[in-house]
């Protein structure tokens, strides 16, 4: 005779199996139909596959995202917004309220801040009080800027390429997850990857807006 406890246990097992199948199906559908578009928003096929500065700093990432936008401005109007990015600096030009729910201390500047324009290779600063520390690995003014986390598991690169309309601003994230569990990998796949698109898309649009405004009105640079 089956006890009530046995019935409940069987029900829980069926629920867990069903949940596992649903998550597996969702992960498969995302990989097949949406993942490439999520990880390459705004980038052309050539941009997504091209070699960028910093690629050699993390040769075999678990996640590779290349996103891009056209900025109708010269590189000199884009570069200042890149070098002042960061917690307690110029912010990330995205949704500050979301960043600050995570304690990242992001306050997106509307002006070029002279005190943060002299970035140098080797400088490090944290991504929020509890976030990873980023080190400047490559700094080629008006061309490329590359950061790497101190644990070596994240490389974030920006490239500025000239085009007929102005500049193609390309952002590439290379992420390793050497010790991540299967649930952690699923969370990254189904939550963090789509979430990163929302935030990075807003960041690229924010830089575009600011750079184009600066190109139209250079005196918007804040005084030293």
3D structure, described in words:
The chain is an alpha+beta fold. 41% of the residues lie in helices and 21% in strands. It has five helices and six strands; from the N terminus they run ααβααβββββα. The chain has a six-stranded antiparallel sheet, with helices on one face. β5 (154-163) and β6 form a beta hairpin. The longest helix has 36 residues, at 4-39. The chain is globular. The chain starts with a helix and ends in an 8-residue tail after the last helix. The relative contact order is 0.19. The model has no long low-confidence stretch (mean pLDDT 84).
Q: What tags apply to this protein structure?
A:
21% strand, 5 helices, 41% helix, alpha+beta, 224 residues, single chain
In short:
Helices cover 41% and strands 21% of the residues. It is an alpha+beta fold. The chain has a six-stranded antiparallel β-sheet with strand order 1-6-5-4-3-2, with helices on one face.
Cα(first) to Cα(last) distance is: 83 Å
Strands, count: 6
Oligomeric state of the chains? single chain
The topology string of helices and strands comes to HHEHHEEEEEH
Poorly predicted spans: none
Decide which structural class fits the backbone.
alpha+beta
What integer is the average pLDDT? 84
* Main β-sheet, spatial strand arrangement: 1-6-5-4-3-2
Q: Which range does the strand content fall in? A: 15-25%
Give me the secondary-structure topology.
Blueprint: H1 4-39, H2 45-49, E1 63-71, H3 75-83, H4 96-101, E2 124-126, E3 133-140, E4 144-149, E5 154-163, E6 166-175, H5 182-216
């Amino acid at each position: 005779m089956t006890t009530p406890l046995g019935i409940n246990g069987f029900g829980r097992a069926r629920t867990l199996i069903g949940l596992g199948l649903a998550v597996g199906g969702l992960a498969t559908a995302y990989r097949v139909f949406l993942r490439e578009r999520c990880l390459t928003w705004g980038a052309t096929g050539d941009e997504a596959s091209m070699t960028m500065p910093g690629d050699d700093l993390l040769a075999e990432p678990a996640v590779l995202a290349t996103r891009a936008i056209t900025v109708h401005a010269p590189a000199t109007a884009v570069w200042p917004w890149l070098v002042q990015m960061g917690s307690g600096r110029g912010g990330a030009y995205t949704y500050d309220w979301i960043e600050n729910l995570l304690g990242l201390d992001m306050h997106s500047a509307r002006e070029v801040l002279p005190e943060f324009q002299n970035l140098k290779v080797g400088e490090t600063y944290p991504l929020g009080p509890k976030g990873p520390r980023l080190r400047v690995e490559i700094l080629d003014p008006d061309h490329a800027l590359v950061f790497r986390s101190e644990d070596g598991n994240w490389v974030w690169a920006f490239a500025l390429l000239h085009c007929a309309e102005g500049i193609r601003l390309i952002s590439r994230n290379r992420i390793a997850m050497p010790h991540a569990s299967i649930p952690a990998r699923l969370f990254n796949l189904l939550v963090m990857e789509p979430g990163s698109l929302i935030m990075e898309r807003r960041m690229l649009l924010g830089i575009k807006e600011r750079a184009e405004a600066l190109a139209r009105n250079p005196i918007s640079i804040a005084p030293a």
